[in-house]
Amino acid sequence: MSYLTNLLRGLALGLVLPLCASAQLKVGQPFPDLAAYGIEGRLPACAGQVVLVDFWATWCAPCKASFPAYGELQRELAPRGFVLLAVSIDKTAAPYDEFLARFRPPFPTVRDGTQRLIAQVRVPAMPTSYLVDRRGVVRSIHSGYHGEATLRALREEIVRLLEEKS
After folding, report:
1. d(CA 9, CA 165)
2. What contacts 24+ positions apart, CB below 8 Å, involve 124-129?
3. What is the spatial distance between Cα 35 and Cα 146, in angstroms, rounded to a whole number?
4. Which DSSP letter does residue 86 get?
5. What's the pLDDT at 23?
6. With 0-12 CB in 10 A as exposed, 13-18 as middle and 19+ as buried, what is 88?
7. C-beta atoms surrounding 118 within 10 Å
8. pLDDT score for 166
9. DSSP labels, 33-54
């Protein structure tokens, strides 16, 4: 190959690889290892579980509305192998701590204060939930919270994943 061909190929790779590295997380891809992102708070044991990772913020009204319904999902489906993990994107701890004291969610919550995880996943809106199967693969993505319609869809999808053979 000529020098010019190699140079053009290198330039093309240099332009394409960063775009691939920053691509938004999609259905069918593995969910990133949460422990690698400096998440603040205690991460629950998720290995072998069906997990709903919900990105939220204290300033987000639909996020606040989702918490009671998500608590219901957690209470109902946890005995079958389901874990709901709420990941706050709040940069500072005070609003996060106040929110938790006020709403007392019955599921684990952590904070991505550095926003490294949200940057990797490229979360499109608040709230957005990623339903992850027992192997760690994203099976569905729910952007926004639309009350009973969201809850019904999530419950059906979670139950279906819980019933799948590993």
Report:
1. 44
2. 124/24, 126/55, 126/56, 126/57, 126/60, 126/62, 126/63, 126/89, 127/54, 127/55, 127/56, 127/57, 127/60, 127/62, 127/63, 127/66, 128/54, 128/55, 129/52, 129/53, 129/54, 129/55, 129/154
3. 30
4. E
5. 72
6. buried
7. 18
8. 64
9. -GGGGT-BSPPPP-TTSEEEEE
| Phi and psi angles of residue 142, each rounded to the nearest 5 degrees, phi first | -120, 115
3-state SS class at 123: coil
Q: Which helix (H) or strand (E) holds 84?
A: strand 82-88
List Cβ neighbours of 165 (8 Å cut-off, separation of 6 or more): none
Edge-to-edge, what's the strand order for the sheet holding 109-111? 109-111, 82-88, 50-56, 128-132, 138-143
* Per-position pLDDT tens, the chain of length 166: 433 333 333 333 333 333 334 579 999 999 999 999 999 999 999 999 999 999 999 999 999 999 999 999 999 999 999 999 999 999 999 999 999 999 999 999 999 999 999 999 999 999 999 999 999 999 999 999 999 999 999 999 999 999 997 6
- Return the number of other C-beta atoms located less than 10 Å from residue 36's C-beta: 10
Taking a C-beta distance cutoff of 8 angstroms, is the pair 39, 113 a contact? no
What pLDDT score was predicted for residue 165?
Answer: 79
